[in-house]
Input
Amino acid sequence: MIDLYKQPLSIDRFQAYIKLLQGETKGNLAFPISGFNPMAKEHILEKLRELKNLEAEKNMTEALSALNDKVSGQFSNRSFHVALNLSDDLKGGWTNRFTSDYDSKFNFNGLISRDFCTPIFWSSENYSKTIIKQRTLEYALRTIYRLTYPGPRTLEEHVLQERYVANTVGIKNKYVMGDFAELNNFFVVNKQSTDYHIIFNFFYGDEGSLSLGFPAYGINTDFTGFDYAAGLT
Output
């Protein structure tokens, strides 16, 4: 991807990206790079170099090796190719942070069917080896969870997936009594809902919903469904 972004920002770069993405078959997914914006500006190249300097792929391998030792043999030795994806939420119109994050965590059956797993990193983030390893484990665990459970439909099913991820990785929630109680009340009332807007608002708060013209239900953006799930045992 560094080599790709070294190319001038042009239609030639876009076509090179499509060829890499699809391989020789139109509409195929030969190389799991759909989280990248092929027309991103210079800052993406800088962020990729930052990840390379942190030995991101080495750290991802170490995290996955430890996970493999724990789950070896549980899924008929099925193997997945794990590929870092860097999504641009800073300077491009290609990617919406909220919807892209939702899809990467909940709508990824197409990747699973092709034996891919794509941990998403964001151009606005500050990286560290700890973040790289944790992010890799989160996405790998979502893949593992999906091998046992179908894609979530209800709000409760979304929360159960994220509770599994948070508890297994050891993510500590930003526990605030009032916010947790408020979210719990919302969850109890809506846990069987399959309404996308309700589920989306629960996980991304009013800021995420309103930025897309979705209805808002009063969810505090600083304490959302991900924090709620992390607080459940």
Notes: Residues 152-233 form one domain. The radius of gyration is 18 Å. The chain has eleven helices and four strands.
